[in-house]
Amino acid sequence: MGGSKKPKFYVVWSGGTPGIYTSWADCQKHVQGVKGAKYKSFDSRREAEIAFKGNPSEYIVKKKAGEKPKQVYDPSVGLPITNNSIATDAACSGARGPMEYRGVWIETGQELFKMGPYEDGTNNIGEFLGIVHALAYLKQHNYDQTIVYTDSRTAMKWVRDKKIKTTLDRNHKNEELFVLVDRALKWLENNSYMNPIRKWETKAWGEIPADFGRK
């Protein structure tokens, strides 16, 4: 369920061991669960080196609107767990069309993965793939308590049943996408996981942090 992406450099000003790391997994070891940890990603080593020597307050800014969950309608829903959780979401152009999906760490807004766009897909398939991608990543890195949030009950059911129910026909345009679906279903059949999969309560918390912002 992997994919290529541009390298990033992670500066840890305050945490387990301050320094510059070349993967989010390594960075997370020094900041997860550390009260007051200060860290940020950069697109180049040069930027990271300059930032590491500077004041973190000059680089760390408040999260954009929508990334910080807040209650709007129903206090009984409570608030999501944000300090050890991933949000996944998909975006599709129309009922069927180019589709992409991604996952982000809720606490930091850091993008964990982004896949697509894939031609001739659906939002439900993207939501399903996002959950399985997150589960596979977490299992690979031994994050067995990390929560996976999704705003799709349909995708949650597909993962639970280890079976998808879609009216999308398999064709030459979306063959690559269906190969990913086959791989995801096979992963679910052959792997167990402890990570809770929870519904993101959009009405109470606003858009899920992995939202593509195209509504």
TrEMBL record:
<dbReference type="InterPro" id="IPR037056">
    <property type="entry name" value="RNase_H1_N_sf"/>
</dbReference>
<dbReference type="InterPro" id="IPR012337">
    <property type="entry name" value="RNaseH-like_sf"/>
</dbReference>
<dbReference type="GO" id="GO:0046872">
    <property type="term" value="F:metal ion binding"/>
</dbReference>
<keyword id="KW-0540">Nuclease</keyword>
<feature type="binding site">
    <location>
        <position position="89"/>
    </location>
    <ligand>
        <name>Mg(2+) 1</name>
    </ligand>
</feature>
<keyword id="KW-0464">Manganese</keyword>
<dbReference type="GO" id="GO:0043137">
    <property type="term" value="P:DNA replication, removal of RNA primer"/>
</dbReference>
<keyword id="KW-0460">Magnesium</keyword>
<dbReference type="Pfam" id="PF01693">
    <property type="entry name" value="Cauli_VI"/>
</dbReference>
<keyword id="KW-0378">Hydrolase</keyword>
<dbReference type="InterPro" id="IPR009027">
    <property type="entry name" value="Ribosomal_bL9/RNase_H1_N"/>
</dbReference>
<dbReference type="GO" id="GO:0003676">
    <property type="term" value="F:nucleic acid binding"/>
</dbReference>
<dbReference type="GO" id="GO:0005737">
    <property type="term" value="C:cytoplasm"/>
</dbReference>
<dbReference type="InterPro" id="IPR011320">
    <property type="entry name" value="RNase_H1_N"/>
</dbReference>
<feature type="binding site">
    <location>
        <position position="151"/>
    </location>
    <ligand>
        <name>Mg(2+) 2</name>
    </ligand>
</feature>
<feature type="binding site">
    <location>
        <position position="211"/>
    </location>
    <ligand>
        <name>Mg(2+) 1</name>
    </ligand>
</feature>
<dbReference type="GO" id="GO:0004523">
    <property type="term" value="F:RNA-DNA hybrid ribonuclease activity"/>
</dbReference>
<keyword id="KW-0963">Cytoplasm</keyword>
<keyword id="KW-0479">Metal-binding</keyword>
<dbReference type="Pfam" id="PF00075">
    <property type="entry name" value="RNase_H"/>
</dbReference>
<feature type="binding site">
    <location>
        <position position="127"/>
    </location>
    <ligand>
        <name>Mg(2+) 2</name>
    </ligand>
</feature>
<keyword id="KW-0255">Endonuclease</keyword>
<dbReference type="InterPro" id="IPR002156">
    <property type="entry name" value="RNaseH_domain"/>
</dbReference>
<dbReference type="InterPro" id="IPR050092">
    <property type="entry name" value="RNase_H"/>
</dbReference>
<comment type="function">
    <text>Endonuclease that specifically degrades the RNA of RNA-DNA hybrids.</text>
</comment>
<comment type="similarity">
    <text>Belongs to the RNase H family.</text>
</comment>
<feature type="domain" description="RNase H type-1">
    <location>
        <begin position="80"/>
        <end position="215"/>
    </location>
</feature>
<dbReference type="InterPro" id="IPR036397">
    <property type="entry name" value="RNaseH_sf"/>
</dbReference>
<protein>
    <recommendedName>
        <fullName>Ribonuclease H</fullName>
        <ecNumber>3.1.26.4</ecNumber>
    </recommendedName>
</protein>
<dbReference type="InterPro" id="IPR017290">
    <property type="entry name" value="RNase_H_bac"/>
</dbReference>
